[in-house]
Amino acid sequence: MAKENEDGQEKTEEPTGKRLQEARDKGDIPRSKDLNTMLLTLVSAVSLLILGPFVAEAMLAVFKFNFSINRADIFDEQGIFRHLTLSLKESVLGLLPIFIVVVIAALIAPISLGGWNFSTEALQPKFSRLNPIEGIKRLFSMNSLVELVKSIAKVAVVGISAILVFHAFEKELPGLAWMAPEFAFARTVEILIWVAIWISASLIFIVLIDVPYQLYQYNEKMKMTLQEIKDEMKNTEGKPEVKGRIRQLQREMANRRMMSDVPNADVIITNPTHYAVALKYDDSSMGAPELLAKGGDELAMKIREIADAHNIPILQVPPLSRAIYYSTEIGEVIPEGLYMAVAQVLAYVYQLKQADSGKAKHPGKAPSPEIPKEYKH
After folding, report:
1. How far from the centroid of its chain's Cα atoms is residue 206's Cα?
2. Which of 21, 42, 216, 362 is geometrically suited to a Cys-Cys bond with 355, CB 3.0 to 4.6 A?
3. Residues contacting 299, CB < 8 A, separation 6+
């Protein structure tokens, strides 16, 4: 059965990346204490087995050094101090490899599940944990029952492993009493290390159950209701009505800027009513005609109105207006494939201006330039 939130809604949806990141920022990540314990004890035991001879030799040298103090040093306070300092130094150097391995294991083990994470929020005290009612709920929760079962299973697994390991060395243990003390001691330590290794390794069975359970439990805890996902989307992306209003305002601002450029156009090419494009060309500063404005329907009508108010020529060339409308963005030069068609229109506009000034005859009917197939719409 799916969990419910405080409003009684079922948490049926997988957690979003934002939800997981917020939990991580608060220090809430999946962890397995059994995995930490297993790795730390197993690495420590194996390091003792591998580095044990080196450590034993170092400690043996320290023991011999302390049992061979000469008479002069015994009655000399400074000599005894130097002797103890040197013994401490050699002991630390002898045990240092084991310490380094254990410290590295202690740092790596906790981040083996959930990764490295540091959060100051996790360090803050939570006074809700002092609530006795909440404490009773946790005591009799499903998580407490699982932890109890795991504890019983750990005791059983460790106990059985210890019995099996000691049984494997059962025939050898009595013979230790007949060995030389130094050999008997070394072999006893070796047996104890193997016991520690096998007992630590036996915890792998517990870890194989605990890690998937911790991941499952964490995922269940992080699950969200449909309403929570909707609220998160609103907070992240903004409410749809607000986003729509912002887009509308942006379009209006862009249109106002575009309309302010229409009076600078040399010609308006229309469809005649559905599309309108405003072109400008200055051979001294432009390599090709530039699109100042374009629009359809009401926006096209507004472009024509501004053009009429500023005495800008308006030509009805439907194929060319559609081609420019769909192939060119505002502020861009027209495509190379439309150069010839636009050149004919601009030449016609130039002739109109010459006719209006009385320097030439009226050019007559507006041109109908050929539009390449790839630009036809």
Report:
1. 30
2. 362
3. 255, 276
Query: What's the token pair of residue 16?
Result: 């979003």
- Across 169-281, the runs of DSSP E, i.e. the strands, are 267-270, 275-280
For residue 258, give the nearest of 220, 210, 296, 217 by alpha carbon. Answer: 296
Q: Can you give 89-134 as a three-state secondary structure string? A: HHHHHHHHHHHHHHHHHHHHHHHCCCCCCCCCHHHCCCHHHHCHHH
Residues ≥6 apart with Cβ < 8 Å to 209: 150, 153
Q: Per-residue pLDDT for 135 more than 70?
A: no
pLDDT in tens, 32-67: 888 888 888 888 888 888 887 887 788 778 777 777
CATH 3.40.1690.10 in the chain, residue ranges: 261-375
* CATH class of the structural domain 261-375: alpha beta
Residue of 47, 83, 81, 89 lying closest to 68 (CA atoms): 83
Cα–Cα distances (Å) from 125 to 25, 29, 121, 267, 273, in that order, read 16, 18, 9, 73, 71
Distances (CA, A) of 312 to 115, 131, 204: 68, 80, 85
Q: Give pLDDT, residue 241.
A: 65
Mean pLDDT highest for which of 4-18, 150-164, 235-249, 291-305? 291-305
- Main-chain dihedrals φ then ψ at residue 70, nearest 5 degrees: -80, 165
**What span, in angstroms and rounded, lies between the C-alpha atoms of 292 and 325?**
11
325-to-295, 316, 374 alpha-carbon distances in Å: 8, 14, 14
User: pLDDT at residue 207 above 80?
Assistant: yes
Provide the percentage of residues in the chain whose pLDDT is more than 90. 2
Q: How far apart are CA 215 and CA 222, in angstroms?
A: 11
Residues 338-367 have pLDDT tens digits of 889 888 988 888 888 888 777 777 777 878
Per residue in 107-128, pLDDT (tens digit) is: 888 777 776 766 666 556 665 5
